[in-house]
């Protein structure tokens, strides 16, 4: 679950749904799909048993974590805990993906994820984070990210990003994937495949001594080569006992300083669009939707910088 970058807040617009498509037409061939222009019915908050360890924001309303400052170098105990939370998040995500089928509502997927996380003695990190009302994020078609699960049924041809974060043994593990629902058109399939490949290549270039800005520079080149746009308003982030912290991982060309060091953990989570990069946030305060109505896809992993390279912590093993 990414956040709006501190340096990019002016790139997003808080706009009622009825005004979203007054900003221009979609450029190029974006394929056939159903545009989402409003949110559905959101069910009441799901309960969390008393015995489940909860983050501080469960008990009181708190703002999102600060992503500015020096990245934390994790201890071996913290790394071991993050391996467990990351693997659990990856397993829950895989199981949720199997339920991304025609006729299933995103609220049903949220209910499944909530129960599976609790059964694993973990906490669904998005729940109550800065007021978020659900246990996962589900973003369909032209919703870029932070979609709130609701009563809309998934339709043939949808693409849906499912973003799962769990809090286990005092640490968060965060990952997401975009799934195909039924028969997805050629452009939608291309978008999903290209976004996954982009994340995979971003991870490969990481390692000790590598500058963080190499990630954004690569994404910028990749989008140029594939005629895509990076929705740069949302960033990757440091993660650990906190959901969001430094470093900021910017998914666009930049020259901000900072190098990766062994023991750092952070997410990389590019959102790539078939149209433009501008977004609006709906009146629920969370759902980020493309201004031009174009589809986007997102993939995310939590990674650890090691002495020799990287380790993907959110890999289902």
TrEMBL record:
Keywords: Aminopeptidase, Hydrolase, Metal-binding, Protease. Substrate binds at residues 146, 244. Gene3D superfamilies: Creatinase/methionine aminopeptidase superfamily (3.90.230.10). It comes from the Eukaryota. It is an enzyme of class 3 (hydrolase). The keyword Flavoprotein does not apply. One of its GO terms (biological process) is proteolysis. Its EC number is 3.4.11.18. Binds 2 divalent metal cations per subunit. Has a high-affinity and a low affinity metal-binding site. The true nature of the physiological cofactor is under debate. The enzyme is active with cobalt, zinc, manganese or divalent iron ions. Most likely, methionine aminopeptidases function as mononuclear Fe(2+)-metalloproteases under physiological conditions, and the catalytically relevant metal-binding site has been assigned to the histidine-containing high-affinity site. It comes from Drosophila erecta (Fruit fly). Cotranslationally removes the N-terminal methionine from nascent proteins. The N-terminal methionine is often cleaved when the second residue in the primary sequence is small and uncharged (Met-Ala-, Cys, Gly, Pro, Ser, Thr, or Val). Its cofactor is Co(2+); Zn(2+); Mn(2+); Fe(2+). The keyword Flavoprotein does not apply. Pfam families: Peptidase_M24. InterPro entries: Creatinase/aminopeptidase-like, Pept_M24, Pept_M24_MAP, Pept_M24A_MAP1. CDD domains: MetAP1. PANTHER family: METHIONINE AMINOPEPTIDASE, METHIONINE AMINOPEPTIDASE 1D, MITOCHONDRIAL. A divalent metal cation 1 binds at residues 163, 174, 300. It catalyses: Release of N-terminal amino acids, preferentially methionine, from peptides and arylamides. A divalent metal cation 2 binds at residues 174, 237, 269, 300. Belongs to the peptidase M24A family. Methionine aminopeptidase type 1 subfamily. Residues 81-307 form the Peptidase M24 domain. GO terms for molecular function: initiator methionyl aminopeptidase activity; metal ion binding; metalloaminopeptidase activity. This is Methionine aminopeptidase.
């Amino acid at each position: 679950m990414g956040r709006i970058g501190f340096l990019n807040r002016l790139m997003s617009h808080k706009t009622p749904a009825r005004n979203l498509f007054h900003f221009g037409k979609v450029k190029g061939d974006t394929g056939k799909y159903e545009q989402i222009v409003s949110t559905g019915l959101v069910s009441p908050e799901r309960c969390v048993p008393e015995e489940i360890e909860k983050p501080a924001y469960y008990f009181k309303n708190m703002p999102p974590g600060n992503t500015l400052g020096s990245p934390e170098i994790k201890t071996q105990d913290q790394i071991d805990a993050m391996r467990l939370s990351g693997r659990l998040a990856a397993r829950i995500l895989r199981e949720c993906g199997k339920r991304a089928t025609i006729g299933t509502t995103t609220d049903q997927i949220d209910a499944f994820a909530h129960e599976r996380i609790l059964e694993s003695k973990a906490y669904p990190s998005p729940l109550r984070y800065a007021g978020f009302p659900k246990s996962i994020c589900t973003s369909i078609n032209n919703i870029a990210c932070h979609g709130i699960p609701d009563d809309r049924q998934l339709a043939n041809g949808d693409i849906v990003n499912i973003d799962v974060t769990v809090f286990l043994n005092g640490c968060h593990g965060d990952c997401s994937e975009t799934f195909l629902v039924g028969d997805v058109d050629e452009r939608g399939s291309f978008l999903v495949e290209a976004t996954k490949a982009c994340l995979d290549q971003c991870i490969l270039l990481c390692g000790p001594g590598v500058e963080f800005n190499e990630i954004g520079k690569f994404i910028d080149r990749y989008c140029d080569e594939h005629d895509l746009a990076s929705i740069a308003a949302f960033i990757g982030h440091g993660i650990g006992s906190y959901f969001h912290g430094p470093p900021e991982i910017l998914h666009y060309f930049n020259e901000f300083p900072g190098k990766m060091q062994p023991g750092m953990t952070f997410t990389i989570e590019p959102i790539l669009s078939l149209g433009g990069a501008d977004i609006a946030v709906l009146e629920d305060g969370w759902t980020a939707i493309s201004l031009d109505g174009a589809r986007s896809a997102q993939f995310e992993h939590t990674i650890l910088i090691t002495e020799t390279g990287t380790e993907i912590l959110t890999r289902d093993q």
